[in-house]
Amino acid sequence: MRGVLEYTAYRRYIADYYADRKVKSAFTWQEFAKLAGFTSPVYLKYVSEGRFNLSDEAAGRVAQAMGLVDFEQEYFREMVKFDHAKTDAGKKAAFGNMLAIADAHKAKVLGGDSFRFFSDWKNPVIRELAPAMPGAKPLALAHACRPKVSAAEVSEVLNFLVKADLLQKDETGNYKQTQKSVTTGPMGVTPVAVRGLHRQMGEIALDTIEGVPQERRNFSGLTLGVTRDAYEEIVREIAEFRKRVIAIATREDATDEVYRMNIQFFPMTNKNGNKKG
């Protein structure tokens, strides 16, 4: 089976570990639970199915029972914290610790680059900006960014984008995108980062109301009363609209300026949609 540093879901790791042991020997959930110090013979089976959780202390015992040592145990504990965290901040902190442990031991976390990319507004902006400014140094790119960033921050982002194969740097020092667009993909960890990115971009959008001349920005909005069926149809229309916008933006290689489009459709009331009677 894969090493623990290649996992992001501790329940999946427990299930895979059990399946791997089961194939090689007469291993049972009861034996597994006993090794980890649980009296219930099915406790870890229920954990793997998402019915029970692990405390931090129990996570350490389970890690030991699976033969994990040193940084592997630490990584497993962080996976448990990531799964159990109630807030995006808690999940982001735990996943960041997982990435740090993996980086320190030259391992790549599946979905780690995606998480990093969507965690910070500077990543998508500089990914668009760098190819549009051939030969520009980090300081020049920093001066072109809104909000303000430092040359050191730009250098860090560029290094990450190249390492993650989201940008390519040629022999003359110019940057080129490896693909036209970046999507969130199916990774379960990415939505945590994306929600944070939406918050960052929303705050930046508010600043542009006063900080950017009206002829360089376009803000509009609607307040509507809708049914659930209408909501779902509007969401489908938004998805199609986004595809058309992407097609317009990517049909030419040239870029004059980097823009952000926020599309938000959210409830302004607390009704849950349940009908009485």
Task: Characterise this structure.
The chain is an all-alpha fold. It folds into two domains: 102 residues, 434 Repressor (Amino-terminal Domain) (Orthogonal Bundle), CATH 1.10.260; 132 residues, no CATH class. The protein is 55% helix and 2% strand. It has twelve helices and two strands; from the N terminus they run H-H-H-H-H-H-H-H-H-H-E-E-H-H. The chain has a two-stranded antiparallel sheet. Strand 1 and strand 2 form a beta hairpin. Helix 4 packs across helix 5. The protein is globular.
| Bulk shape | globular
Structural class comes to mainly alpha
Q: Which sequence of strands runs across the widest sheet?
A: 1-2
Radius of gyration: 23 Å
- Measured by DSSP, the beta-strand proportion falls in under 5%
